[in-house]
Design a protein that fits this description.
heteropentamer; A mainly alpha; B alpha/beta; C mainly alpha; D alpha/beta; E alpha/beta; A: mainly alpha; two-stranded antiparallel ribbon; binds adenosine-5'-triphosphate; binds magnesium ion; ATP hydrolysis activity (chain E); BCA_ABC_TP_C (chain E); P-loop_NTPase (chain E); transport (chain E)
Chain lengths: 358, 406, 336, 278, 273
């Protein structure tokens, strides 16, 4: 019995309701937090930061956001790219308009603005359901991208329509702009990730989360037992877009440094984040992390193996990489449709029984 | 060993073009390594990294290949914008021939970026110059339509063309096409109604093929249809078949196989099986452009070695090499590419060269491009203030102080 | 007056474009109807079919690039040219094989899963097929010519010029597309409404388990529909490939088909056509009006352009607000 | 007890034989822990037991529908007419004459009532006339369905759906019907009627029935033989007669005590003498 | 007994039945051509157990849906506690204190039993969005208070051992019990039960009956019950409405209904003991 739950009794409901009720889990969680905050920043380099860690952290936030909407509230959205763009452009406008205000506040405000936009585009969800809604959210995706491309005010009338993140500091450390060190960028993203995960966890374990899940599982029954579908869906769209907006803001300001809306926030982004959520596990915050890690790491890993180790020509490698990614997605869906999170849970269940088969 | 990463894209919507370009780029360095043992005794290593024309993968590729690298050529305006601030900090050269940020021509602001021999504004100006020549120097009252990819890339020439329209008295209609651009019926119906005298096109990928097909469909006179160099490959015209005959495009490099260098390429690279992708695309328009980019980089390296007195140069030294680069027609002939490109003479404040370009025209029967003009100069009078203005804006936004070039 | 004529021309062309969208949308509808699977891979299927068709017609060696890279050989071409008709038949055969493989390797293992999981699986499939298409046939842009006419129809132009003093533009390819689409739709409607297989297909879409329990072989139904959808994709691939060359971007036409679907209803074959027509006309007219200085310019004082990508979706969205199941979709059953 | 049961049924030919099967869901949840039963040809066999005993699971194991619920038979075998079921897919099992009426109705919501019934005839090859005749037969059994034949099944009432499910199974002219809780949600006289139909079909056409039922009362009146499942195990079996008379069965499943049926209102404490805190 | 005094009365076994809380007047409900309910009126008294019976498709569930606001009748009025209820969304009806269970179980499959039951306490939760997001004092306190209530119900219905199981995995009968628990968690004034005992064996039905009676006794909860098991209906209910294809064909005490010839013909088949 490697992993045990038995004997881990709770004597209060507060204990029972905590995030990691099992001691072993809790210890693991603290260990990861310790490494992430106190060790990684000192060993991080440019490559690890930009190729792996920053995208992982930023996409984790976006996945948490989308997971709230899709995984918890059951509203499938393909507008993530567009909402990330809102976050990015909002933070850009704020950063350039109010240079003296802290960028952290800008990012939070950008999230807030995105939340409002998300709510506006979420309104049709009251009538439209399932895939119809999914396709309808593409309207948001395409419209927003077009808007940011079209209206010069959004990109401060720059000749090419690109936006560039100016340098901003937090506690004297540059976190945006080319001079920002990898560890500063990493730490600010990490901060937002922890914040996002914590808030998401709080919301999903409480009554709001239950309303969302009720709407997801059976919206009519939910309404009959007293869930107001309007407020449940709109809070889901709002919270989800808030996180997605923060992710968009970080992606632009901290990670990329410059962006063009059609390229950086196209429909592929929407699919990518949705993939993370589904591969990771719908309705699981851990799953959001797992999904983000999987889809950020997998291509990098494949590329390094196929090109670096096997020495294949890059184009062949790239095409085969597509095939492998596609095949792996299918494979994972077949093995465990409920995602990596469920797989992890099953492993734990197996471990609990170990060495007995059931 | 000198490292010149090749941030290429061989997949995705623009993969077909990216492949040809990357092949040309690789093959030229392979030729130098095989034939001359590299440059100045240093072999050139060209690690390739697939960006899929995607900015994030571009950044990853940049970071992955950064160590020891001298110069980057990402062939994507989006990735270029990403890298411009980064190369300043990392001190790497960014070479973006015929794409990227136009105002990077101003070396005082963009210390590490070079975009010789020509940029989009040059292209726009040369196209108008050509039309002026065709019309006896007068475009007054003419209607010119610009069909463009609705992105940073496509929007680049608008400012210039507007200025030129003021100057020469033609009217400019802007017709954006949303990427990817498979469906352009509205745009071409509009052209059919408006009957512009000329159509200019800033397109990329499938947009080009469809535009050329639609132009043929409405029987727009192909000789009045001029594309930027990225809308001037065989790939763009072939699907329209006969209909594309007479279509014109700008180019800043020679086309076709009538250059001595191809003999060397054949003996040293293609026949030895070392060609990138088996040499399928040798001689195509985009291949030639990739090769040309490699030629310029190689020349800059040569120059830098000369200046630094060492063969193992650093990126700083390469920058100096670029800034003193002078590719004369004689030198081009020596390389085996006579009249292949314009003369390139760069300096500390001019990172963009002369901006000359020429026109090529498609012959559908022969399935080849013919060069129909000599290199033409852009209109510096119009362009210089624009460049000054845009680079100043960037300098202010990014907090860069202009360096002095004396 | 001129604006009216132009508007009419735009409208007619919008209808034609709509038909082209419908060709892609049809494939979606079939698969959705039969399995409740929202098949994102339909666009890639069209690309794959077109690539295969060109490859077969031109006698390309499949996987040549891979083989060459692995064995250092230089094979490219079998050196034969196959007439279009045979090539189309052969390609249809390939699509059947593909359908069988998809069923065996993917769908079979996902019986009874939630729709979104199946949807994701088809996106995985799209990636896979995209890579496979590239590896098999190369990433070049290929010219496809199966003998369909292209370009302005002189007959129409002259007749209308005689009538209205303004010759309308209609692409002959579009006329063909319309004819083919009409035939396809008639055949498919008859199939799904009036045959036993068609009924079984709809049953499967409702409830996998129950379908199994009455002895409907999911395997058979799925192979059947995916084959038909593959064939529809081939038709769409031919049409679009003739227009723009066969290349990666062909797979993106799926995005143009989605609003069509949404508007027509995911489950309705006639809906795919009507939806296509509405979307085609709507987006073209909107673009025409909004980008014309004489219309929007004089009405609102500004013009906007390049609206087609989003307008189709917004239009469909508006329709959905009033009919959440699309114009012809099956009513969404809401009961407790 | 098991042995004697086997002995008593072995006189008639066993059509369906379930030998000691074990079923696991999701690779971890062990639900059936060795269930064996045998269904003689032409009989009505009842599977009784409380909630969660594993009746549905047993039926699904037989009709091979577990796979789509992430369940699998990990031990034991199921043999139908001498052939192992595991090697057949559900569709060919239907062709062989085994059809299941699933718990919870599972109608095709978007199909009309009539189309639902016709899907039942999917595997039949004996021509449209025969199918039409059977359709009329089903409408005879359930006149209510005839009235609602053009409505989408999703909009019919719970009981109507149950009739559709039953009718659909009859439409396939099966040799064996696995019935999962046929009486659930049906009005009393309809329950009676459904069982009458079961009996009629059984006697008239020799169709074998294996039915899972909570309504022990009715089930034991019509069945020939019964198995009682608890917790994934067969705890008792015997002829319907024997079971009806068994005092435990009487008490726990038929709700009878020595004094006869008790009023539900008079059940003052819980059967299993559980206490609740409040 | 139908003309019982307005202010209520005491039953034989000593329970207090109050005045009319809900009065349904001339309800008619149509779906296209199908008339599910045809001009039906009846009332529900405080604290009583009111059964609705009738053949399949008679319109019983539809009636419940009308009461809980999911179907809006074309004609007729619903009076609740002396006020005429205006057009209301179902969640607003729920806030009035009407909770229900469903014929085709409508549990939230993706959630655990505990969470399902906790959703019942939805309308008893007051803490705001921010406080929940940050898990501030009130949110946590309220959560714990809700949990205590829910645990009582869990104990009461004896489902302690499945507390954390996802409901999707539960067998049918337990699901029904969880649904009841969810409805109870709302501390409703009126509890609507749609075939709570379908798919149960006698023993389980006895348990269920016990729960229903205890809830009624303990909290005085008014209960509307649809059930096909006549034994249960006759034993538990105070008054019974009989529907037949949209019409009301009987209304009265179990004994009255049992001996009503029309009811026997339409529904019971044989006279039940
Ligand atoms: N898909 C599933 N995944 C996990 N466990 C399951 C699944 N389906 C059923 N079970 C479990 O298997 C056990 C037996 O369930 P089953 O449905 O066979 O019981 P049953 O006898 O039919 O009960 P009922 O009379 O309530 O229908 C139950 O404990 C249930 O929790
Ligand atoms: N949303 C709806 N649309 C169309 N018809 C409906 C709808 N809801 C119910 N009906 C019809 O109304 C009638 C009454 O249905 P209801 O569900 O109320 O019956 P019931 O009395 O509950 O029957 P059962 O005992 O079988 O559950 C049925 O014929 C049903 O088909
Ligand atoms: Mg069961
Ligand atoms: Mg009912």
């Amino acid at each position: 019995m490697l992993y045990r739950e038995a004997g881990d009794f709770k004597t209060t409901y507060r204990d029972d309701g905590q995030t990691f009720p099992i001691t072993l889990d809790r210890l693991g969680y603290y260990a990861i937090l310790f490494v992430a905050v106190l060790i990684v920043p000192f060993v991080i380099n440019d490559y690890w930061a930009s190729a792996v860690l920053l995208p992982f952290l930023i996409y984790a936030i976006a996945s948490i956001g989308l997971n709230i909407l899709v995984g918890y509230a059951g509203q499938v959205s393909l507008g993530t790219g567009g909402f990330m763009a809102v976050g990015a452009y909002a933070v850009y406008k704020l950063m350039t308009a109010f240079p003296e205000v802290s960028v952290v506040i800008h990012i939070l405000l950008a999230g807030g603005i995105t939340a409002l936009v998300g709510i506006a585009f979420g309104l049709p969800s009251l009538r439209i359901k399932g895939f119809y809604l999914a396709v309808a959210t593409l309207a948001a995706q395409f419209f927003l991208v077009w808007l940011f491309n079209k209206v010069p005010w959004f990109y401060n009338y720059s000749a090419s329509g690109q936006i560039n993140a100016p340098e901003r500091t937090v506690l004297g450390w540059a976190v945006t702009g080319p001079a920002a060190s990898p560890s500063a960028k990493y730490l600010i993203c990490l901060g937002f990730v922890i914040f996002a995960a914590w808030v998401a966890r709080n919301l999903t374990r409480g009554m709001i989360g239950r309303k969302w899940m009720a709407i997801r599982d059976m919206d009519i029954a939910a309404e009959i037992i007293g869930v107001n579908p309007l407020s449940a869906k709109m809070t889901a769209f709002g919270v989800s877009s808030f996180f997605v907006g923060i992710a968009g803001a970080l992606l632009f300001a901290v990670y990329l440094g410059a962006a063009e809306v059609t390229e950086a926030f196209g429909i592929n982004k929407s699919f990518l984040v949705l993939f993370m959520v589904i591969i990771g596990g719908l309705g699981s915050i851990f799953g959001s992390f797992a999904g983000a890690a999987f889809l950020v790491l997998l291509p990098v890993l494949l590329k390094n193996v196929l090109v670096g180790v096997l020495g294949w020509p890059t184009d062949l490698a790239a095409h085969i990489e597509l095939m492998i990614v596609g095949a792996l997605i299918i494979f994972f869906l077949i093995v465990e449709p409920h995602g990596l999170a469920r797989l992890w849970q099953l492993v734990k269940e197996k471990l609990r029984l170990w060495p007995f088969p059931h | 060993e000198l490292i010149v990463p090749n941030l290429s894209y061989r997949t995705g919507p623009y993969g077909a073009n990216g492949t040809q370009y990357a092949d040309g780029f690789n093959d030229y360095f392979t030729l130098l390594n095989e034939r001359d043992g590299g440059i100045g005794g240093e072999t050139i290593s060209v690690p390739e990294c697939e960006t899929a024309y995607n900015t994030e993968k571009g950044v990853e590729c940049y970071e992955a290949t950064k160590d020891g690298a001298l110069v980057f050529n990402p062939l994507s305006t989006g990735i270029t914008y990403q890298l411009i601030p980064k190369v300043g900090v990392d001190k790497k050269v960014l070479y973006t021939p015929g794409y990227g940020r136009t105002s990077a021509k101003n070396g005082k602001v963009f210390e590490w970026v070079f975009n010789a021999p020509a940029n989009y504004w040059d292209g726009a100006s040369v196209a108008i110059k050509y039309l002026l020549d065709e019309n006896g120097g007068d475009l007054n009252g003419k209607k010119i339509a610009l069909v463009y990819h609705n992105s940073a890339y496509g929007k680049e020439p608008i400012r210039t063309l507007q200025e030129l329209a003021k100057k020469h008295g033609f009217t400019l209609t802007e017709i954006p096409v949303e990427a990817p651009g498979q469906e352009q019926k509205s745009q071409w119906l509009q052209i059919r109604r408006d009957k512009p005298d000329y159509v200019l096109m800033w397109g990329w990928g499938v947009m080009n093929q469809v535009a050329i097909q639609e132009a043929a469909n409405i029987r727009f006179p192909m000789e009045n249809f001029i594309g930027i160099w990225w809308a001037g490959s065989e790939l763009d015209v072939m699907p329209a078949g006969e209909g594309a005959n007479g279509y014109k495009a700008l180019t800043f490099n020679g086309v076709g196989m009538d250059y001595p260098i191809y003999d060397d390429l054949k003996t040293h690279v293609i026949d030895t099986g070392k060609a990138s992708q088996g040499g399928e695309h040798v001689g195509s328009a985009v291949y030639s452009r990739g090769m040309y980019a490699a030629v310029v980089i190689a020349e800059a390296i040569r120059k830098a070695q000369e200046l630094a007195g060492t063969s193992a140069i650093t990126p700083e030294q390469l920058r100096d090499g670029f800034e003193q680069l002078d590719i004369t027609p004689e030198r081009l002939a020596e390389i085996g590419l006579p009249d292949f490109g314009p003369e390139i003479k760069l300096s500390c404040d001019n990172h963009g060269g002369s901006g000359m370009a020429r026109i090529q025209q498609w012959d559908a029967a022969e399935k080849k491009w013919n060069l129909i003009t000599e290199f033409m100069e852009p209109d510096a009078e119009v362009l210089d203030p624009l460049i000054a203005e845009d680079s100043a804006a960037y300098a202010q936004e990014a907090g860069v102080t202009e360096r002095s070039c004396n | 007056m001129d604006q009216l004529l132009y508007g009419t021309e735009v409208l007619i062309n919008g209808l034609m474009t709509g038909v082209m969208y419908s060709l892609v949308a049809l494939g979606f509808v079939l698969i959705y109807k039969a399995s409740g699977v929202f098949n994102y891979a339909q666009g890639v299927l069209a690309l794959f079919a077109a690539l295969t068709l060109v490859g077969i017609m031109e006698g390309q060696v499949p996987f040549a690039h891979l083989i060459n890279a692995m064995f250092g050989t230089h094979i490219e071409n079998f050196g034969w040219n196959i007439p279009a008709v045979f090539a189309i038949l052969l390609t249809a055969g390939v699509m059947v094989v593909l359908a069988i493989l998809i069923e065996k390797l993917v769908l079979q293992h996902l019986v009874g899963q939630e729709p979104i999981i199946l949807f994701m699986a088809t996106i995985g499939l799209a990636y896979f097929l995209e890579g496979l298409g590239d590896v098999m046939w190369g990433a070049d842009i290929k010219t496809l010519d199966v003998g369909l006419p292209q370009g302005i129809s002189d007959v129409v132009e002259q007749t209308t010029a005689n009538w209205f003093g303004y010759g309308f533009f209609i692409d002959r390819l579009d006329i063909w597309a319309t004819i083919i689409a009409a035939l396809l739709v008639a055949a498919l409607v008859a199939f799904s409404q009036y045959t036993k297989q068609g009924r079984a297909m709809r049953a499967v879409a409702d409830d996998h388990q129950a379908a199994l329990s009455v002895g409907i072989s999911l395997q058979f139904i799925w192979i059947m529909v995916w084959s038909i959808a593959g064939f529809v994709a081939l038709v769409a691939g031919i049409m679009w490939g003739t227009k723009s060359g066969v290349q990666f971007s062909l797979s993106l036409i799926a995005l143009k088909a989605l609003p069509v679907l949404m508007l027509g209803g995911f489950t309705s074959i006639p809906g795919a056509i009507v939806g296509g027509l509405i979307i085609g006309v709507g987006e073209k007219l909107f673009e025409f009006i909004m980008s014309s200085p004489d219309l929007a310019g004089s009405w609102f004082g500004f013009t906007i352009s390049a609206t087609e990508n989003w307008f189709a979706y917004v239009l469909a969205l508006l329709f959905l607000v009033f009919r959440p199941q699309g114009l012809f979709g099956e009513r969404i059953i809401e009961r407790v | 007890m098991l042995d004697t049961a086997a002995a008593s049924t072995s006189q008639t030919e066993a059509l369906l034989e379930v030998n000691n099967i074990e079923v696991i869901y999701n690779h971890v949840i062990l639900v059936l822990k060795g269930v064996s039963l045998s269904v003689p040809k032409g009989s009505i066999t009842a599977l009784l037991g409380g909630n969660g005993a594993g009746k549905t699971t047993t039926l699904k194991a037989i009709s091979n529908l577990l796979a789509s619920e992430r369940g699998e038979v990990t031990k034991g075998s199921i043999v139908y007419r001498g052939e192992r079921v595991a090697s057949l897919n559900p569709a060919s099992l239907v062709k062989k004459g085994v059809i299941q009426v699933m718990e919870g109705r599972h109608c095709f919501e978007h199909l009309t009532v009539e189309e639902n019934l016709l899907t039942g005839a999917y595997t039949r090859t004996d021509g449209a006339a025969a199918i039409k005749a059977d359709l009329d037969m089903v409408y005879d059994y359930f006149p209510r369905l005839k009235e609602r034949r053009r409505s989408q099944a999703g909009y019919t009432s719970g009981g109507e759906q149950q009739m559709v499910a039953m009718g659909r199974a009859l439409m396939s002219r099966p040799e064996t019907i696995l019935l999962d809780e046929p009486s659930m949600g049906l009005a009393p006289q309809l329950v009676e009627q459904i069982f009458e139909i079961v009996k009629a079909v059984n006697e008239g056409e020799g169709v074998t029935f294996l039915l899972a039922e909570q309504n022990t009362n009715v089930a034991l009146r019509f069945a020939h033989y019964g198995y009682i499942l608890e917790n994934g195990r067969v705890v008792m079996d015997g002829t319907a007669q024997e079971l009806r008379e068994n005092p435990d069965v009487k008490e726990f499943y038929l709700g009878m005590s020595e004094e006869g049926r008790k009023s539900f209102r008079d059940v003052r404490s819980y059967r299993r003498r559980k206490r609740w805190l409040s | 007994m139908l003309d019982a005094p307005a202010e209520g009365y005491v039953t034989a076994d000593g329970r207090q039945i109050g005045p009319v809380v809900m009065d349904l007047k001339n309800i008619t409900l149509r779906f296209g051509g199908v008339v599910a309910i045809k001009d039906i009126s009846f009332d529900i008294r405080q604290g009583e157990i009111r059964a609705i019976i009738g053949p399949n498709g008679a319109g019983k569930s539809s009636m419940l849906n009308v009461i809980s606001g999911f179907y809006v009748p074309q004609e007729g009025e619903v009076w609740f506690k002396g006020y005429r209820r205006g057009p209301m969304r179902p969640y607003q009806v729920a806030r009035l204190g009407i909770a229900r269970t469903f014929q085709n179980i409508a549990l939230f499959d993706g959630m655990s039993v505990l969470d399902n039951i906790m959703t019942g306490r939805l309308n008893k939760t007051k803490s705001g969005f921010l406080s929940q997001a940050l898990w501030w004092g009130p949110a946590e306190r309220e959560e714990i208070a809700n949990r205590e209530q829910v645990e009582k119900i869990i104990d009461f219905l004896e489902i302690q051992n499945i507390r954390k199981t996802p409901v999707g995995r539960l067998p049918y009968g337990l699901k029904k019990r969880v649904e009841l628990a969810r409805a109870l968690a709302a501390e409703p004034q009126i509890l609507l039960l749609d075939e709570p005992m379908a798919g149960m064996n006698v023993e389980e039905k006895e348990d269920m009956s016990r729960f229903i009676l205890d809830v009624n006794d303990e909290f005085g909860t008014t209960t509307v019950l649809i059930e096909h098991d006549m034994g249960v209906v006759m034993d538990l209910s105070d008054r019974v409405v009989v529907m037949d294809y949209g019409r009301k064909i009987g209304d009265g005490t179990p004994d009255e209904v049992r001996n009503n010839q029309e009811v026997i013909d339409a529904y019971l088949g044989v006279a039940h003991d």
